Amino acid sequence: MNVDALHNAAQAAQDTTADPVIFSITVFVLAIIVGYHVVWNVTPALHTPLMSVTNAISSIIIVGALLAAGPVEMNLATVLGLIAVGLASVNIFGGFMVTQRMLAMFKKRG
To answer: Beta-carbon neighbour count of residue 84 at 10 Å?
Structure first.
C-alpha cells in the first residue's frame, strides 16, 4: 500500500463518527449479553469468587460515581453520581454479606 491509501483510510475513519447515544446503548446491550452468559455458565463452586469480583467491579463504579458527584454545582451528573454511589454501596455491602454467608456454609462444625 502506498502512503496516500493509508492517509485516505485514516481520513475516512475520522470522518465517520457514531452517535454517542447509539454507541452507549450498543455497549450496554453487549455488556448485558456477555454478563448473562458469563454468570449463567459458572459452576456452583465458583459463585463465591464471582461475588468477590462483582464487589470489586462495584468498587470501581463507586470511584467513577464519586468523580461525577464531586463538582460543587448541582446538575444532572451530580445527582446521578450520588444515586450511583448509594446503589453501588448497597451492592458492595450486600455482596460482602452474601459472600460471608456462603463461606460460612463451607466451614466445618464442631
So the answer is: 17
Identify the three-state secondary structure at position 42: coil
**Count of H-run helices and E-run strands, the chain:** 4, 0
- Tell the residue number behind the cell numbers 468477590, with chain if given: 52
Residues 17-48 have pLDDT tens digits of 777 788 888 888 998 898 888 777 777 777 76
Of the candidates 101, 107, 38, 95, which has an alpha carbon nearest to the alpha carbon of residue 61?
Answer: 95
The sign of the dihedral angle between the CA atoms of 63, 64, 65, 67 is positive
Indicate the pTM of the whole model. Answer: 0.45
Residue 68, Cβ neighbours under 10 Å: how many? Answer: 19
Gyration radius (Cα) of the chain, Å: 21
Let me know the angle formed at the C-alpha of 91 by 86 and 92, rounded to the nearest 5 degrees: 100
Contacts of 96 (CB under 8 A, 6+ apart): 55
